């Protein structure tokens, strides 16, 4: 009796190792990722805001509404970053490629699309929060933007990214 074991092709093995290394990098270098993410938020806010915006990368904080009646600083905490929504996608993608090397290209495309979607959703969440603070004031706007609407944006956006990942990675 012979058991046939399917071997993973060399490039697929390398891809799996790189994906697991990227996942570990997100965990161990999450501060750097959050700095990049809040810097992106600051750049977007600088373009669309009529008030001052300042990013303090060392604190992963963006200050907006400078010079207005409702200035506020938002800190990108580990709980609010898109890194930990991207992380499971990377791990699942690596496992999918390890188990079925022939779908590597589809999984990588799906991973790219889903990761980009999660980052965009998180930026939209920050912009929603900023908009509500500008509209409703700091106390009410922050409360509604962070606890209710921001959470809904994250949940629905993350679910849409997950559906897109699975659909793109498994379709023929």
Question: Can you characterise this structure?
Answer:
The protein is mainly α and 172 residues long. Helix content is 70%, strand content 9%. The chain is built from five helices and three strands, in the order ααβββααα. The protein has helices at 10-28, 30-48, 83-99, 104-136, 138-170, and strands at residues 52-56, 61-66, 72-75. It has a three-stranded antiparallel sheet with strand order 1-2-3. A hairpin with a 4-residue loop joins strand 1 (52-56) and strand 2 (61-66). Helix 1 (10-28) packs antiparallel against helix 3. It is elongated, with a radius of gyration of 19 Å. It starts with 9 loop residues before the first helix and ends with a helix. It is found in: Cell membrane. This is Exosortase/archaeosortase family protein. Keywords: Cell membrane, Hydrolase, Membrane, Protease, Transmembrane, Transmembrane helix. It is a multi-pass membrane protein. InterPro entries: Exo/Archaeosortase_dom (IPR026392).
